[in-house]
Amino acid sequence: MATADTEPGSSQRFEKGTRETLVTVARHAVLLTWSFLVLFPLYWLASMSLKPSGQANSLPPDWIFLPTVYNYLQLVQSSDFVTAFANSLLMVGASVVLVLLIGVPAAYVLSRYDIPKERDVLVWILSSRMLPPIAVVLPFFIIFQEFNLFDSKIGMVLMYVSINLSLVVWVMKAFFDGIPETLEEAARVDGATRFQGFLKIILPAAKPGIFSVAIISFIFAWIELLFGLVLTSFNAVPVTLFVYSFIGSRSIEWSMLAAASTAMIIPVAIFLIAVNKYLAAGLSFGVVIKE
Amino acid sequence: MSTTRDSLQERIAVNIPIRREKLTPLLLVGPALVTVFLVTIGPMLWSLWLSFNRWTPSSITYQEPTFNGIGNFAWLFTEGRFWDSAINFVYYGGVGVTVQVLLGTALALALYNYVERRSVRIGLLTLFAVPMMIAPLVAGRIWQLLLLPGGGAVNGILGMVGNSGLPWLQSRWLGLTALMIADTWQWVGLPLLIIYGGRASIPDSMYEAAQVNGASRWMQFRRITLPQLQTLIAIAFILRFMDAYKFFDKLFIITRGGPGTQTELPTFYTYIVGFSEFNIGRAAALTWVIGLGSILTMLLFWRFMNTEGSV
């Protein structure tokens, strides 16, 4: 950035330069330190998944070992795992689409219209996240039996939507609040309906927000365990349930558990990398303003 | 920007009607409200009803729920174990969540402002988010192993810098701190992703205007970045705080509330009352106290944010 060059007084400029360098180094230090802290346990997990089962959980761990893909081969060959994985991808993917379709327009309305008791509505929406899942799972069990949703993919999609809806509404409302209303006003002057303005102007401007809540929603649903445990039995079993099946009452199959956990990271990481460019592409409306 | 405003005012001045829709907002907000209604009201009323009943379904003399007034709540507030768990929560939630949100914000801004290469940015963002994708029980177990007093890697590293290591997991406050570390490791990605998205949507033109006026980077941060992100930071805080109220899995595997019952948090205690002692009525009462605490915290925080900020 060229700010410093336009400032008069070279000594002041120098000071500013060193200070900025220091800040930059500090910021990079934060990133570097955290990268290491994140990587170390991950390395442990990954290495556990590459060890034969006898060696996986030894303490102190064997830092040097002969890696084997045996655990992963077993996973891929297990039809239970493949089914559960595919189930989860389908259910979680559908729930993310649905929760965005429901939550984003709602957030827009809460941001732009004068809603009576707006704050109460917002708090109420957030209250769906308030009770611990363990407290709501039993009534849902009864309701699901009643409505034939037990062990159905649709039922699980609805549960995932319910987990994430409040998050989507709250975060997206904040994003919409940050987008100047003049943008829509301009569109409405040109005869667009409010809905068209929302679709064509506001949604593209809020892209980083939409994709960051999409990723977070995906993750929350992807790692959800309790609802899957209580509300499914065969047809709609999510992958988390399969992962936890390696935790027995007496012993834990650590190498398989680690392999399945590592495998669970892959789709979310791919999703994140795939949508990464949208996370940073919300700047288009800045251009609109300038022109 | 000025041109659009002028034209709108002109339009209003010459009485060209701007189209109004009454139905649109209802159609847009409706599905969300219906969903929330379905997933909150039913379970909430059911557990509220239970909280005023005595119900111990697994006891030998099985009884249907019987009404016992505020008995469950009265029991709760005289129970030392509950208060201990509440105090633990103040420490765990207060310090842990603050650290998570501040660290997440710092990482997001550093990533956005200081990492030039796109591939490195993508890589780091993904890396920081990866712990969130690991099943909490597994993450808990990894940290339990890392923090073991003898042979754990954390004490090994502390040993290298001349410290004799800490008795993690063997005392109340260190145990809670261990939980905090594991939880921060896993969930810093949530504030990170929200704030990163927020920073990305601040138009460059705002910074350019500030630069033309000679604002330093610090001033830009104070006057543009912070106010723009304030609400999102608050929301990240609230979301993590509500999750802290529900914190369970990692506690279950790392300390199991131990030593003794010293590191129990409210939800874990609810689990003990509900599914180990099978006193469902009392567990429901506990759930409601936790829920109300959660919402109270949120309202206080929200009010604080709104009086502080100019958003």
Automatic annotation (TrEMBL), chain A:
Its main location: membrane. It comes from the Archaea. GO terms for cellular component: plasma membrane. InterPro entries: BP-dep_ABC_trans_perm, MetI-like, MetI-like_sf. Keywords: Cell membrane, Membrane, Sugar transport, Transmembrane, Transmembrane helix, Transport. It is a multi-pass membrane protein. Gene3D superfamilies: MetI-like. It is found in: Cell membrane. The chain crosses the membrane at residues 21-44, 89-110, 122-144, 156-176, 197-220, 226-247, 254-275. One of its GO terms (biological process) is transmembrane transport. Signal peptide: none annotated. Residues 85-275 form the ABC transmembrane type-1 domain. PROSITE patterns: ABC_TM1 (PS50928). Belongs to the binding-protein-dependent transport system permease family. MalFG subfamily. PANTHER family: MALTOSE TRANSPORT SYSTEM PERMEASE-RELATED, MALTOSE_MALTODEXTRIN TRANSPORT SYSTEM PERMEASE PROTEIN MALG. This is Binding-protein-dependent maltose/mannitol transporter. The lineage of its organism: Archaea, Methanobacteriati, Methanobacteriota, Stenosarchaea group, Halobacteria.
TrEMBL record, chain B:
It is a multi-pass membrane protein. Pfam families: BPD_transp_1. It comes from the Archaea. It is found in: Cell membrane. The chain crosses the membrane at residues 26-49, 89-112, 124-143, 173-196, 224-242, 283-302. Residues 86-301 form the ABC transmembrane type-1 domain. SUPFAM superfamilies: MetI-like. One of its GO terms (cellular component) is plasma membrane. Keywords: Cell membrane, Membrane, Transmembrane, Transmembrane helix, Transport. One of its GO terms (biological process) is transmembrane transport. PANTHER family: ABC TRANSPORTER PERMEASE PROTEIN (PTHR30193), INNER MEMBRANE ABC TRANSPORTER PERMEASE PROTEIN YCJO (PTHR30193:SF37). Belongs to the binding-protein-dependent transport system permease family. This is Sugar ABC transporter permease. The lineage of its organism: Archaea, Methanobacteriati, Methanobacteriota, Stenosarchaea group, Halobacteria.
